[in-house]
Design brief:
There is one protein chain. The chain contains 15 helices and 18 strands. The chain starts with a helix and ends in a 14-residue tail after the last helix. The chain has four domains: 3-94, Uridine Diphospho-n-acetylenolpyruvylglucosamine Reductase, domain 2 (2-Layer Sandwich); 100-218, Uridine Diphospho-n-acetylenolpyruvylglucosamine Reductase, domain 3 (2-Layer Sandwich); 223-332, Alpha-Beta Plaits; 339-440, Alpha-Beta Plaits. The protein has helices at residues 3-17, 26-32, 53-66, 118-127, 144-150, 157-160, 196-199, 233-244, 257-264, 290-305, 318-329, 331-335, 352-366, 395-415, 440-453; strands spanning 22-23, 46-48, 70-73, 90-93, 100-104, 109-113, 130-131, 167-174, 179-182, 207-215, 217-218, 223-230, 249-256, 279-286, 311-314, 341-346, 371-377, 382-388. Helix content is 35%, strand content 21%. Strand 8 and strand 9 (179-182) form a beta hairpin. The chain is globular. It is of the alpha+beta class. A seven-stranded antiparallel beta sheet has the order 15-12-14-13-17-18-16, sandwiched between helices.
Amino acid sequence: MSSDNQSQILSRLQGIVGEDKVKTDQDSLDTFGKDWTKIYEPKPLAIVFPKSTEEVAELVKAANELEFAIVPSGGRTGLSAGAVAANGEVVIALDRMNTISDFNAIDRTVRCGAGVITEQLQDYAEEQGLFYPVDFASAGSSQIGGNIGTNAGGIKVIKYGMTRDWVAGMKVVTGKGDVLELNKDLVKNNTGYDLRQLFIGGEGTLGIVTEATMRLDRAPKDLSVLVLGVPEFEAIMDVLHAFQNKLDLTAFEFFSDKAMRKVLARGDVPAPFETQAEYYALLEFEAENEELVNSAMEVFEYCVEQGWVLDGVISQSETQAQNLWRLREDISETIAEWTPYKNDISVVVSKVPPFLREIEEVVNREYPDFEIIWFGHIGDGNLHLNILKPEGLAKEEFFEKCAKVSTWVFEIVEKYQGSVSAEHGVGMTKKPYLQYTRSEVEIEYMRAMKRVFDPKNVMNPGKVIDL
């Protein structure tokens, strides 16, 4: 791009949002031009901070007219490079669109700007005596717009579902610059195609979500947490089945002993019990009365008798419950220093044990020096495979070797009819592997939809699919 073209674009951007809301300094470019992935170097042209849907629409129209690309940016906590601007794009950062309004106690809904932080919405719901259940480790920095763009899931999916289950309606700016108000917050609306669902999980490739009406729920009461030591992975599924037969679980997570050891080594949280196990299951349920607690203890004792559980602990206070959760929630942050190569994959729950076993066999056979850290939302079939970089191995060489691992892993995903991306999106890192989950016919229909909403390919180009 010539310097004249750059000057013209920057001038147009400043005219829309104001000179002080267009950043071109290196620190801003580095900060807002990337997400949590470390594979691609950020190289955006500029960062703009709109305040309204109207300004976003004007920015998109300018992109169509002046032929520059746009990358929407939320909390930048993504793990698939969906928010990386590596090719001179203009980043539209939605941080200023962070207001919460129009709370409706009867409908249990609230309107959020795309830049509202997930935790901000959770706290607001709590102030109203309600609950926003979509939750994950990045809740303190991820934004609602980004959650919608990736259909974020997290730790409560087994009971509450994904982000898409909580979006009552939303306002979007398409790749043409058109403003659409989708679904009008209705519960029942059978008037043809639900365009809302195309933008949920669309990763900003069809347009930008600027505002959303989110549903809220009854706040759970008296949550109790159980952590159980399990001798082998297959037994986790038996434990899940046994507890689901007796209790309505709000969460069912798992992590390997290797994962927990990394967390315990920091000294921030205590071990749950002295007995060491190969794997651990974390269960959460509402202990509203003594009968429910007794049922949980009966199931626990049954699991011990069957040899599925070696030891366990149930929270006796909110502080203990929080510490037990930290054994699972602190894993990602803890292993970050090893530059982990992450894969977020899923299959139907019943297929998880042989699926995990095949993946472990391949990685251990090909790269015996690589340490594997497993954890995930086992209650919904979502596994997080983390391969830690050995000390002394260059990052570039490590990622090159892991790219081969991905191919082997995704061949197993295809065999089990699973997904190459359970909740982190496709972005750039998963795009080469999309065919392992989606057929070529499906991908062509996706391209056709992209051409309808974004004919000039200005919206997050190079992500999810190529035209």
